[in-house]
Amino acid sequence: MKQILVATDFSNSAANAMDYAMELAKTLNMEVCAIHAILPTEGVDNNMYKAFYIKDYYESKRQALKEWVATYTEREEYKGIAVDTLCDVGLVKNVISKYIDEHHVELLVMGITGSTGITGIVGSNASTLVSIVNIPTLIVPLASKFSKTPVITLATDYETRLSADDVNALNEMILAFGSDKMQVLYVGEKSEVKNVETGESKLQELIKHSELEFNYIKESNALTGIIEFIEKNDTDILCLVKHHHNILYRLFTRSTVNKVLNRSVKAVLVLHE
Asked: Where are the beta strands (DSSP E) in 123-219?
């Protein structure tokens, strides 16, 4: 069965991301795996564990992960959702990348605390993973909660092309949510009618289970326009396509934008070419 992978460090933001992932798993009929990376040097000089061998420290972390997951699987609303755990030694990016390479992971979910300390599109680990993984990645701010009928907005410049896997994932999500309409926000450097019409037509061919409502903002006020649009339309999930050379990715790697996004957007779904 398809799987949702949730990265956890046992923080409040990770707990919120796990709640979001469990609700998604119930809606999308998927399994969940909670994954925790133990840094290679962790536990070696930790006074709390100085009486234990390092392997005992690792085992204690694996047990802690199982107990953390149990706080979710024991809830009545999550009965029937299969949840696995993996606690492995290594850098976060390496542990998660290896797991994704070896398993059928449909979606990676990560939590972030807020604007403090954010660099790049999201927080440090999340920012690194967004740049190296090639599956849809959902970034969930601490204040965000799952919506059974989310308002989804796809921001695009029509220059990038979604991968087939990401198109399938987005269509499955729209179908499962029963979203009869998806907002499309065009942000681009080319405003020729022909370019816009071609982009609209191609997107309509890809998104099969929802009516698309097209909206437009100019490059000169793209930042303000995006923020005003997602606030005005009560966006729950903002979809972005990872492409390092397009206007959207340049805009959304600025820290000032991240601060606003963490106030305004329930979640950011990063898709790939």
From this structure: 137-141, 152-156, 181-187, 211-217
